[in-house]
Write a structure and sequence with these properties.
Structural class: mainly alpha
Strand content: under 5%
Largest sheet: none
Protein name: DUF2783 domain-containing protein
Number of strands: 0
Radius of gyration: 13 Å
Number of helices: 3
Order of helices and strands: HHH
Length: 62
């Protein structure tokens, strides 16, 4: 597995796409959309341990 990261520009592009998609889903479906997206990304990542680490990191400082 390679350990590559997005550039700042790449992160901004992803953030913009995510914000647009959340708006498209609407407030009543945003949570369902985010769960589906997380599961799709977990499957693409194919690493349960890394995914759990990302969950832990995302929960910090909420």
């Amino acid at each position: 597995m390679t350990n590559s990261a997005l550039t700042i520009g790449g992160l901004e592009t992803v953030y913009d796409a995510l914000a647009t998609a959340i708006d498209q889903a609407g407030a009543d479906k945003a949570q369902l959309f985010l769960v589906k997206l997380a599961l799709l990304n977990a499957n693409a990542l194919a690493d349960e341990t890394l995914f759990q680490q990302q969950i832990t990191a995302a929960l910090q400082d909420l």
